[in-house]
Amino acid sequence: MNALSVRTKLTAWYGGLFLLAGLVLVVINYLLVQSTLPDPARVASTTIGSADATYGIAAGTPLPSEGVAVRLLSGSLDEYRSSTLSTLVVGSAIALVVTAALAVLFGWLMAGRALRPLHDITSAARRLEAGKLDRRINLEGPPDELKELADTFDGMLDRLAESFDSQKRFVANASHELRTPLAVQRTLVEVAMADPDAAPELRKLGTHLLHTNERSERMIEGLLVLARSDRGLQARAPVRLDEVVRAVVRATAASAEAAGVAVETRLRPRVVAGDPVLLERLVTNLVVNAITYNASGGWVYVEVRGDPALEVRNSGPVVPPEAVPTLFEPFRRVGSERTGDTRNAGLGLSIVRSVTSAHGGWADAQPGRRGGLTVTVRLPPS
């Protein structure tokens, strides 16, 4: 329910209650006036009797019969009574309609004024993102229920911002701390494998350890990128997205050839305001994922255009539609081909969505008709 519908309903309630109260008032007024006006027959009889006693006999002039006189006078009084009540009803109805229209108008204005703080709260909530929790309502006014609601909302945002910042600092610090022991471990394994007297079992174990270490380093690097993009952009610069895609495709050409995957591009000039390093990582993740989760003899199609800014389609195993949303969650893989896969850390699409969100855009994915995945990235113009 939006603010306009609530305002309309409040206005309808104001107008309806006022109209109901006006109808009750008109009915009460009608009944009071009706009971106050004298009965025509009784007044006519009393008046004719008094006239006969006072004027008819004393003057000695002939008068109409008493019954005819009573009927004539009673008819005149009845017409007067009916005319008075009709005038009262018509006038009251006109006044009620005019006043009800004014009540609806003033009710609309008062409802809008009363709901304005709620509109401010809604607007602030819509502008909030995980990386942009710096906006506050700061509602001015008397300490009423709406002021209390706005202050409570601001306090909740303060706690959320503190929690998000703490989480991001922890991820970034932990990732930095883990890079050093991983680098030392890799160096020690490489030194041990470089020994010419190393046994074959040691070389086999060292190869396995290097592979595991490499995967851990990729995961740590992905966590660092994810933490950086979640913090938002400190500065923006014009970036040619088509040139970034062209460079990434050239850098991954050897991997695509080794996997037996053909990469095709259609690149239109497109300028995006953002971080060139994060945008390059976004494109790299999409292209590498499209190559990795593919089949020999498959294809990858990368397109840069207006809207969406970037689209990457690839062939490959069938992805269930209900599993697509989970692909953007960290450390999530879908299908037997991805479960237990050590080629990637499971952060590729999570980084894509985080980087896109940091640039004010949105990333979405749809399963291909014959397998594979179509990922679209929408970015605002520069």
TrEMBL record:
Keywords: Kinase, Membrane, Phosphoprotein, Transferase, Transmembrane, Transmembrane helix, Two-component regulatory system
Signal sequence range: none
Localization terms from the record: Cell membrane
Membrane-crossing residue ranges in chain numbering: 12-32, 85-109
Entry keyword Magnesium: no
The reaction(s) this protein catalyses: ATP + protein L-histidine = ADP + protein N-phospho-L-histidine
Protein name: histidine kinase
Taxonomic classification: Bacteria, Bacillati, Actinomycetota, Actinomycetes, Pseudonocardiales
